[in-house]
Design goal:
Layout lengths: L2 E2 L5 E7 L9 E6 L7 E11 L1 H8 L9 E2 L3 E9 L11 E5 L12 E5 L3 E3 L6 H6 L1 H14 L6 E5 L4 H12 L3 E5 L5 H6 L4 E3 L12 E4 L6 H5 L8 E4 L13 E4 L5 H11 L8 E5 L3 H10 L5 E5 L3
Parallel strand pairs: 10-11, 10-13, 11-12, 13-14, 14-15, 16-17
Antiparallel strand pairs: 1-6, 2-3, 2-5, 4-6, 4-8, 4-17, 6-7, 7-9
Helix pairs in contact: 3-4
Length: 311
């Protein structure tokens, strides 16, 4: 390491040693991860909780081994930088997205991640939003890019009140698109607060000439009636993991993943600038990780669930 703050040898972390229900998550002491030459060590304040974490914990995706630490994204302060890292310093406020991070996940007091998967927290962005945002924001951004959403188009976001949907609405609005988001009645005001012109829970002829594109964040039996309002040959996009895979005859169906790269983070920070993102967060303490997983498995989460690692 070329520079570091006072870093302890051990930390508190949520550890999983075998797949199972939420109660297999245990708060234990674990070694603070080392810092490779191209990594930074982040003292975490918040970590995002995604359904993909619950699926990994349950054994239906990814791997669980002895001492596995879950978590793919979060925010905090840089505590150490590797010898080859030139663009970050100890004390920088940052966020990061590193899916299946090889040196351990984000449900911990410290995480070591490649520096090219890290960005500075934009001005005015709350740390809890920065901690819950990376995966869902970079995924939403990738979806808008693969759909080639641009100014004055009419975008449909199916599942607009969830994590990826929330950021798709906000980023779509920032691109100058007119956004219609689907949401249950109790979430429609929230979806409008993100920038949606319309928030609906049943198919309506909101776009008189049809939608130019649709970003699908979840599948349901209501999806076909919404897709029926796409313009001729208009594309639909969906994150890998949405099942069953959405499709509509005569329309390109484009799968995508969030991009873990400095270039993608720079584009995201450029879109955010000095603005705030009204992402709704439900915060659980690290000691409440079992309850956080139980909540996300109930479904219909509005916004994003995050763990508070440190105040």
């Amino acid at each position: 390491m070329s520079a570091e703050a006072a870093v302890p040898k051990v930390m508190k972390a949520v550890v999983v040693s075998a797949p199972g229900p939420a109660h297999v998550l245990q708060l234990k002491e674990a070694p603070v991860p080392g810092v490779a030459s191209d990594h930074v060590l982040i003292a975490l304040q918040y970590a995002g909780v995604g359904i993909w974490d619950a699926e990994q914990r349950a054994g239906s995706s990814g791997k669980i081994g002895r001492g596995t630490i879950l978590g793919s994204d979060g925010s905090g302060t840089i505590a150490a930088v590797g010898s080859h890292v030139k663009d970050f310093s100890v004390g920088d406020l940052v966020y990061a997205y590193s899916y299946m991070n090889e040196s351990g996940g984000f449900y911990a007091e410290y995480v070591s991640v490649p520096a090219n998967r890290v960005g500075r927290v934009p001005t005015h962005l709350k740390m809890e939003v920065a901690g819950g945002m990376p995966c869902i924001a970079l995924t939403a951004q990738a979806g808008l890019e693969v759909l080639k959403v641009k100014k004055d188009q009419h975008l449909l976001v199916f599942g607009a009140s969830g994590g990826v949907g929330s950021l798709a609405v906000w980023l779509g609005k920032e691109k100058g698109a007119t956004v219609t988001g689907t949401a249950r009645p109790d979430a429609q005001d929230y979806v409008r607060s993100l920038g949606a012109t319309h928030a609906v829970d049943s198919s309506k002829r909101i776009a008189a000439e049809g939608f130019d594109a649709c970003l699908v964040t979840a599948n349901s039996d209501k999806l076909p009636e919404f897709l029926a309002h796409l313009k001729d040959k208009a594309p639909l996009g969906y994150p890998n993991g949405v099942e069953p895979k959405p499709s509509l005859k005569g329309h390109p169906a484009l799968a995508f993943d969030g991009e873990m790269s400095r270039a993608a983070i720079d584009r995201l920070n450029g879109a955010i600038g000095s603005k705030t993102i009204p992402l709704r967060t439900q915060v659980f303490p690290l000691t409440g990780v079992v309850e956080a997983h139980q909540r996300i498995e109930q479904g219909h989460v509005i916004g994003k669930i995050v763990l508070q690692i440190h105040p």
